[in-house]
Write a structure and sequence with these properties.
This protein is α/β, with parallel strands linked by helices. It is built from 8 helices and 17 strands.
Length: 334
Amino acid sequence: GLGDVGVLPMFHSFAMTAVMTFSIAAGGWMMLFPKPPPTEELLKEIQEIPAPKGLAYAGAEILFKRLADFPEIQNYDIMGKLRLCVSGAGPLHKPVQEAFEKNTGGRIVEGYGLSEASPVVSGGNLFGESPLGTIGMPFPGTDWAIFPTEDFNKGLIADGLPRSKYGEENTGEICVCGPQVMKGYLNQPEETADTIKEWDGRKWLLTGDIGFMREDGTITIMDRKKQLIKIAGHSVFPKEVESMLMMNEAVSEAAVAGLPDPEGKVGEIIKAWVQIKPEYENTITEEELKAWTEENLTKWKCPTIIEFIEEVPKSILGKVQRRQLQEADPLWNK
């Protein structure tokens, strides 16, 4: 049967569903690691273990990036072996997706879910066309819609029906309705009331994620509502700035967050923490990278500060910890 490469901690709902439960449902088998192994070890195991029906691989973006960027990947016979790959626990940036598919011959789509939805909501099409930059379509029995970010009670913006308003200009909060939505937070009635609201006789989960619906019913996530950066009346999504930074050949990873404007003029400023690829160390400066972004981004989306760091911090699942960088910055604590 189909093999499933498991490097995620099994105590987390992502691994429980995308590795363990998926393998059982598919009549497949699991290749389990106690933690994400070094890239060389992972490639060696994928190459040597027979998998005539191919392998599935689920993880955060960083796991796919490590494979895509590995300089000696051509020395391993894995081309086309990673047939079904799902990236979750955070955004999948387009440069990573394209590099992974080119260098491994694998198929990768973005999935979407959260613990409050047990934990899966949607996924891209692994067996056909799946538009780049979307989180696919909701799973069977699940409905989703875009509601106004600031006031759910104003009514929906888009749900795929004729009344819907599509496109980035109609961005709002992604809300989910379905059997997998939780009943509520244990002994936290106020938090539950803020997160689950009723509309048209149905209970909807407010995910805290900002996005917009396309005319084909797919959704593009812009970012977390709490991480939106406000600059002189403009809204900036960290994911957009990160994606642009990662298009620079010298950049391995980037994390972007808002900090208080020390001059008090525009509310917040943008700071980017950047990890440079080893082969480009000492070949580019923060100011040169900042000048590059100014040539490729709208002025108010450009980082005011860029800081090079050894490694972008991540959670046990591989999710970039923007908040950790933000709260450790001197400007945040002023």
